[in-house]
Model the fold of this input.
Amino acid sequence: MNSEVVIIDFTRTPLVKPGTSFANLTSQDLAAACIADLIKRTGLPKEKVEDVVFGQSIITTFPYNLARYSAVLSGLPLEVPGYTVQCLEASGLQALQNAYYLTATENCETVIAGGAESYSVAPYVIREARYSYDPEVNKVADTINEVKTYTQPEPINKAAQVRALVAEKGYTPERQQAMVERSFKKALAAKEQGVWENHLTPVIVKDRKKGELVYTKDMFLSTKEPAVTEYLGAANADGACAMLVMTANEAQRNNLVPMASIKGIACSACPPSDSWQAAILAVEKLLIKKKLTYKDIDLFEIREDSAAALLNMIETLSCKAEMDSSLMADRINTCGGSLALGSSAGADGMILVCSLILGLRNTGKKRGIAAASAAGGQGIAALIEMIDS
Done:
């Protein structure tokens, strides 16, 4: 028996540069803040939560099992289990997929799904040093670089990957910069309109000299600085996001009004060298499964891995949908994306879904797809429909 799966509410922390405001906070701290805020916002009794599923990209971040630790830290009953999934930049969408399966099959009625990442506390490690350590041989490795470079079946340098795409497609610096400016302008407009205002969790940081500091703003937007690297890829950001997912029947029993419904999720894979194409493949697979066409989709929310990748995806989607590229671009990332806000890999997928719902609500549209590619050549796409209130 398959139950209708609905989204009740969601929240995320501000996204900030690593090593700054959240420098001493773990992914678990950020995730716990979102979980606690989500329970407070919805008024759902804590004991009603049956499972917690979170995505995380750099899973070596201590403490282990982000979902379980965050659930306990947030004040959920100790009887509420939790587990962590890892699909690199698509980890948040992977967590949503697991929550969807749990509730659609009625193995659970209520699940909190989310994602989190703290680059600030990502560890350095010494590989192959457990039994024979030689300082000349066993070098210290940065797990942030490792998670971006070592994707099956062999290491791929992200900057070189993007430059290869630029060379292949002939994308000029001006066209790439236009993608960055497009994302940033949309994110600034969303900020001015207060699109995220009611879905941001304040993060409290205790400072030895200044006392309690409360952070409520996305750092890159506040500094008027796009979140990009030197090759115009999305810059890293610390952050977390959480969403309350339930069966429609359970929502009704608890007098909770759903915002949207999850209609399906699809996964795909492609050669790691063309990893951004995996999101498009997932979208196509999802459309086929649901017997829909591109013209049936009002809005798309697609992870902005780099300016070049975004350009390529807009062109690809336009071609497949037989639509002018400018018209397709208007349907994509209406609230801006990672090139403006920064990329918190473990949370990105979940933030995409939240941003899609906000975009659909603000434009009065009905149906959208959120999709993300992950290093290694994998993609996940989720079909979301708004529920009339």
Notes: The CA atoms of residues 57 and 87 lie 7 Å apart. Residues 173-192 form the longest helix (20 residues). The mean pLDDT is 95. The chain has two domains: 5-123+196-253, 162-176+262-386.
